[in-house]
Amino acid sequence: MAVSWPGMVQWWEEWQLRVLALSSLFLQCFLFVSATFRRYRIPALFRTCIWLAYLGSDALAIYGLATLFNRHRKPAPGAVAAAGGTSNGHGRSSMLEVLWAPVFLIHLGGQDTITAYNIEDNELWARHAVAMSSQAAVSVYVFCRSWSGGKVPVRCPVALFVAGFLKMGHRLWALRRASITWHATVSSDRRSRRKTTAEEEGGDMSLENYIRQAREQAATRNIDDAVNINDDGEARRAARRRSREQRAQLLAPNILEELMELFIDFPAPYARRIVYLTSFMALENYDAYYNLCNLLDLAFQFFYTKKNTNYTIVGIFLWVLFFLLGITAVAGFDGLDSNKDGLDRDDVKVTYILLCSAIVMEFSSLVWLNDWNWVPLWMLAPEMHRTIVQFNLIGFAARSRWPTMVMWIATLLGCKNYVNQHWYLEHRSSTAKIIGFIRKDLTSGWVSLRSVADHRRFNDRRGHWTLRREQCYGELGWSVTELPFDEAVLVWHIATAICLHCTDVPTAAEDADGASAAARSMEISNYMMYLLLFQPDMLMPGTQQSLFTVACREIRRALRNQRQQEKLSERELARWLLFSVDEPTTAAAEQGGGGGEGRHLANARRLAGAMMELDADRRLRVIGGVWVEMICYSASRCRGFLHSKSMGVGGEFLTVVWLLLHRMGMEGLADKLQRPELTTGDVQDAVVV
């Protein structure tokens, strides 16, 4: 049977508002279920769906209010239903449609699991307040113009309107409390009061005393036993169970306040740092790693959900009040008969669905409010909390020269570069091991600090500390002191790949620890290369992404003498770059070191050649130590705002390192920018190697 166009138009006019209401409800349910998974590594398509649902939920609710306003801005022609409802133009009562206006307000209030998708949404809370005020005014106007009551008790719409206003106000309150500006203002007042109290009690700890106590704490720890991360699965699961049991301790007001101060780049007093350092050094193996993950999960919830308000007395009161109002509305609507009361049967069904769904989702948020981990341990591997992204420049060059089937298809579709840079990103589940690798370096570093100058040099290191310790600064020091940081990352990335591919690491190391150190070094190298290309602001302010394009062009030029039919693996390509590249460019770069073409690859070959002259164990210590220093250098100079922003799209491993540095008592960005100048005696100590 053919469907006529006028019939379709008539059906849409009758069902338009119902479809909008149910679609808005569907998006709310989708956000309620899926928003929690934003803090895990999820497929990009799933994350895009969450983003579209976040944007579309408000748009759909606003469109529903606009449609309701257009339907009822004038008295509808036709007879009024016996129950007192106005006609919608098709001979059926539209009284219940008017009742959906406060339901759209409840949907505009959003879900507790997602108040903001980007950190900028919190800063725009005032704009949201203006928009929500106009939307609330429109809904009240439509209701007052069109509501005739009938058999539906007046307490039902009144309860829904109050619940809608509370829901919207709660969302605005959560956005405001999660904004960086609000935290900076509140923290400034709080710190001024603490400073006054500290001065009355005798002042804060001095830097000299802090360094002495931190060195003593590090010296009492067995470095190898305390921070070594092994592959014991049972130990990992036991540590995760302990971390879940200890999550409630993180909700203490002082811990939350101090964690938020970290994200707004407020330096912590030395007395607090020594407490962090003492407690963190006492943790074993995976316990330290999961402690960092719990803190980051808590920060995510406070920036991007209503957790920052739900843990207050007012927040709990609002939740109870909203739940009671929802029950009141459903109780007032219950018992109505569409046949006896002159109500449209479809409108009655839709109304029941909307009201009951709102109560169920609000009740379910009680589980989330109490921070119950409803996801079983076996469903989510611990590495899904934080994975480290891998991007290898040599592998990228190999795919460009010998494309895969995916690359052939991408070339035909005109998106070769996008696919090559995004499709082939790897995610390694070795974050706990890398954190242990870095933690071991920081612990051993504390033992060697003797003065304020040593402490400052240790926090400013970007490779030269390791080179001096291994007594090869004269041969390799130029690579970390004469080159800009972004260029040093690129040069060391290529040189590391060449050295590790051109030597048999397990045989050279003669133990599993050496092989593990080589793997961790390569993973940090690949991750830093990923930051250079995809997150340059987090790597270092002023980072040039164009270095990647220049380096790729240099590698392609170096391969011009290699026969096309000989497909090389990454290992073979690394060997080719070391042994089979023309020498004139390399010699020119070594002599001048200027900005000529080919200098990045030439510097990398020069660095790799110098490191190949070292013995195997020493070479691995140099590579591992330099990369630890580089990632710590980058993390400590990244603003807290960028770390909080990255958590909205899954988070970056650099944020875990940044929090590790804080818990290990290292200096942050604010400490580096606001620390006083050294005295003459300290300057003389600082220049001593």
UniProtKB/TrEMBL annotation:
The gene is LOC127761264. It comes from Oryza glaberrima (African rice). Pfam families: DUF4220 (PF13968), DUF594 (PF04578). It comes from the Eukaryota. InterPro entries: DUF4220, DUF594. This is DUF4220 domain-containing protein. Keywords: Membrane, Transmembrane, Transmembrane helix. Residues 51-402 form the DUF4220 domain. The chain crosses the membrane at residues 15-37, 311-330, 350-369.
